[in-house]
Structure formats: structure tokens, C-alpha cells
Design goal:
This protein has helices at about 5-20, 30-35, 40-45, 50-60, 70-90, 95-100, 105-140, 140-160, 160-170, 175-185, 190-200, 205-220, 220-240, 250-285, 295-305, 310-340, 355-370, 385-405, 410, 420-444. With about 450 residues, it is an all-alpha fold. The chain has one domain: Amino acid/polyamine transporter I. The chain is globular, with a radius of gyration of 21 Å.
Amino acid sequence: MSNRSRKKRARSEALGASESKDPVVGSSKPRLLGILGPGLITGASDDDPSGIATYSQAGAQFGFSIQWIMLFSYPLMCAVQEISARLGRTTEHGIAGNLRHHYPNWLLQTIVILLAIANTINLGADLGAMGDVAQTLSGAPRFLFVIFFAALCATLQIFMSYTRYVAVLKWTTLSLFCYFGTVLFVKIPWSELASGFFIPKISWSADFLTIVTAVLGTTISPYLFFWQSSQEAEDERVKPYRHPLVKAPGESEHAFHRIRLDTYVGMAFANLVALAIIVTTAATLHAKGVTDIETSQQAAEALRPVAGNFAFIIFSLGILGTGLLAVPVLAGSTAYAIGESRHWPVGLARKPEEAKAFYAVIAIATLVGMILNFTPINPIKALFWTAVLNGIISVPVMVTMMLVVTNPQVMAKFVIKGPLLWLGWAATLVMAASAVGTIAGAVL
């Protein structure tokens, strides 16, 4: 081995050692709460008010027979999120940043525009749902809560330090435990639940295909890819013991272990919450013949007469908590995508004066989402259809991302391959098939 090769190997081993000493990874006894970061926050934000409305509609309309989708989607969403996280950790750039460096500008701008539109509508719908629930709980005017929640989310993102803000997001994920609480207040036919979870029941009706696309669209959603990829890149920039894997391959073993654990736990948490919502609405609303739920607030209201006032309150508080988590992620993923596409300084770790355009996008996206609640376009009614829209938009985003992570010019020796690659393409094909089915059902 040449002297140059020995030096290079020594440098990689040293960098790998620094990664293993990462307080988030810890080589001996890793602290789970420390390991969990972008994956946990991404998974929890997946269960936003739009997702709650989708899962509630699925449970109300199809009962326990729709549960198998969550078991089916878990390995697919894990693969897609792990791939997006590896992209950010390997290159020190999010999805948009890598597209800007290696692909045509028209492709980048098309994807960013689609993402921004879907995110803004979703953000507005989530703020509206939070306003509705807060009004129901307190009796105060809805518009005051919509303005308050929008201002709170934007202010925390822009002015709170990055480490504290990440900690706030982590603690906000605890609000999702509300949905495990609601299950305790309903009577569950366990044999029917087990059958619906393990035995797929498929219908080729337009309603079923739309529900499938909506559920997949809210569990495998474009803003989640962009957020987790950008957060991995952000963490790398602010932590001196981490380096882009293309420059420090010695860090890869520990980095990929952390990413996998973080992602699998975060996605499991998201899917278990979704299952709790489906089970709750299937055991109550579907059992009582209530099959049409358009919003998460309607789901909470419908639970009151069949599951009791306490279940209604818990379900409602969960909507507020998940909204406070999802709105910043939606605005943040939009800002990362637009900022990276324009080559602006980006990152929540930067001070406002260091990334004015980046923070301006966060403020504008939140403002536009808030304004949608005061126009004839009622974003609350768009909650369910936002999930369908995300399911359709995710297809070109996923195809592009899969091409990026298999490109050696981008990923060097860390190109995605093997089972992770197969699952990534399988998820892409599943999303494409469900989107085509929904469009065909609507046309025919």
C-alpha cells in the first residue's frame, strides 16, 4: 500500500471514529431518544390533520378491512425515507440541491413548483383544521386561532435556535399518543381487526382506489422526502464531527446505522398512530353507519356520541398537537426546496439575517396557507383531496429521487443498491399504480 493510500485510509478511519463518538450515535450503549431525530419528526409529522382526516375516512368508510394497507405500506415508506435520508447525509445537500447540481433546471423547477403548491394547500388545510378544533373546544372565533397558530409556527421556526427548535419538535411528537388513548374507549372486535390487518381485501371500485391513493399519499408524501433529506444535510453542517460521506466514507457504517434506526422507529410510530385512528373510527363510526368524514374535526365530533366526550377531547387535542408539528415541516420543506433550487443560504441553524430569503419562504408559505382559510376556497374540505394530490405528485418526485440515488456522480460509492433499491422502486410503482387507478376511476 502506498504512503498516500495509507494516509487516506487513516483519515477515513479517524473520521469514522469521530462519527462513532457522535453523542447521537454512541458506539456502546446508544441513547434511543438521542438517536431519534429527523426520522422521528418526519414520521410524526406524517400524521398531520390531513392524514387524520384520511385515516378517519378510511376507517369510517371501509371499517377494519382497510387496515392491511398500513402493514403493506410500512416497508415501502421506510425504504423511501431511508433513501432520502442517505441522500442528504452522503452529499450534504437535500433533494433539490442535488437536482440543481446534476439535472436539468426545468426538471428541478417543475418538481419544486409541484411541491410548493401541494405543501401550501396542505398547510392551509392543517391550520384550518386546528382552528376548527380549537373553536369547538373553547367557543372562541375560529379565525383567531388560525392566525394564532400560523404566527406561532412561523415565529418559532424563524427565531428559535435550531437545537431548541428540534427539541420542541421531538417533544411535540408525544401528542400522537392521544390516538392510542382513544382506542381504550371503544369496543373492538379483535377477530375482525386481525382479519382486516393480515388479510388484504381489495375492491376495484373508484371509492376504494381513491382511499388507497389518499392513504398512500399521506404516508408516502413528497414533503416528507424533502424534509428528512434536508434535515440530514442540516445536521451534518451544524455538527463538526460529521462530514459528507462522499468526502469521509469512514463515517458511513455508523451514519447508516443511525439513519436506519431513526427512520424505522419514526415510520413505525407514524403507522401505529394511523392504525389507532382507523381502528377507532372503524369500531365506532363505521359500526354505527357513519361513513362520510371529510375533515379531522368532523371525525372528532362524530366520535362524541358513540365513544364519549373524553374520547372526543383526546382526539381533538391530538389534532392540535400534530398540526403544530406538521405546519413547520410543510413550510420548512418548501423553504429548503426553493432555497436549494435557487442556491440560497438555507437552514434552520442559520440566523434570520444569514438566510433572509429562506426564512421569507417559510413566512410566505405559512401566510398564504393562513389566507386560504379566508377565501371562498375552503382548504378544510380539501384535507382528504390533499392526500390524493400528494399521492399523485409523489410519483414524478420518487422517480427522480431514485434516479439521483443510483447515480455514481452524485452518491459516489454509496449508490443505493440491493433490497433497499428494490423496495424504493417497488414503492414508486405502487404509488404510480394507485395514482393511475384513481385518475382512471374519476374519468370513467
